[in-house]
Design a protein that fits this description.
Elements lengths: L1 E6 L10 H10 L2 E6 L3 H13 L3 E5 L13 H10 L3 E10 L10 H19 L3 E6 L6 H17 L5 E4 L5 H9 L2 E5 L10 H6 L5 E3 L21 H12 L3 H16 L2
Parallel strand pairs: 1-2, 2-3, 3-4, 4-5, 5-6, 6-7, 7-8
Helix pairs in contact: 4-5, 8-9
The structure holds zinc ion.
């Protein structure tokens, strides 16, 4: 079974053929976490997961996708109470790539929303689906995000865990995530960029995950096209090659890792 741990099936780019895409996932033995980025898409993720056994919901607020929205923890708590299909909180975190954190209270705004979701995840004993993107040529958002996570970890016992989605951090950053009990997840970029090989090759095999981030970021040989969950197999094949194990073994490892973290 293929496990795409981060995708956006509720995205409007799937409006015309969502049912076909989901049927193709089933045919290709592919399950996925469909991820919300704000209140509306989180509700849609829950609705979609309710309808399909091989789709799980992740609910939360992206740091910069909908900057006008406040994070209302009580609404999310209600949604969690009503639905058994939610497997993680997010995608949440810090994004210093698209938005300058030094611009008018932006750093504080992102931190507040992030910390509210950390608290929610700890309270509900759910993993965090982290979106952390540093500004160009730096590790700044990772440094700050790790600091925030570490401060919550002190009081959370074992209830603070999760994964760094679309991980672009270096080996030093990766090690700090592993020490905190987190996983790192790779999308299709590993199929055409060699920038991530050091982490892929040195990470504990039981802390790696694969994802598509569909409809974005399609792997080779689908590059430039709309991405789909079942294309996660190209990413997993590349991860297998980089680790020197068979594709079949890596498919199984990625599925086991995803099931362990998300409890599906
Ligand atoms: Zn995403």
């Amino acid at each position: 079974m293929l496990y795409d741990t981060h995708t956006h099936l509720t995205h409007e780019k799937f409006n015309a053929d969502r049912d076909d895409i989901i049927a193709l996932m089933r045919e290709n033995e592919c399950c996925a976490n469909t991820v919300g980025v704000d209140w509306e898409s989180s509700q849609a993720a829950v609705a979609l997961a309710w309808e399909h056994e091989h789709i799980y919901a992740v609910i939360g607020q992206h740091p910069v996708d909908n900057r006008a929205e406040q994070f209302d923890q009580s609404s999310y708590r209600k949604l969690l109470a009503e639905s058994a299909s939610v497997v993680a909180i997010g995608e949440c975190g810090l994004d210093f790539y698209w938005v300058d954190p030094d611009e008018g209270g932006e750093r504080e705004r992102q931190r507040d929303i992030f910390e509210a979701q950390i608290e929610l995840a700890i309270r509900k004993q759910l993993p965090l689906m982290l979106h952390i993107r540093p500004s160009k040529g730096t590790m700044d958002a990772y440094e700050e995000g790790l600091e925030i996570l570490a401060s919550h970890a002190q009081t959370a016992d074992d209830a603070l865990f999760g994964t760094a989605h679309f991980f672009v951090g270096d080996w030093a950053i990766a090690k700090r995530f592993f020490e905190l009990g987190f996983y790192v997840s790779y999308p299709g970029i590993v199929t055409f960029s060699r920038e991530f090989d050091e982490v892929v090759q040195n990470a504990p095999l039981d802390r790696l995950l694969a994802e598509t981030d569909a409809p974005y970021a399609a792997p080779e040989p689908m590059r430039g096209k709309r991405n789909e969950p079942r294309y996660v197999r190209y990413t997993i094949a590349k991860l297998a090659e980089l680790r020197g194990i068979s594709e079949e073994e890596m498919v199984g490892q990625m599925y086991d890792n995803g099931r362990r973290l998300f409890g599906v």
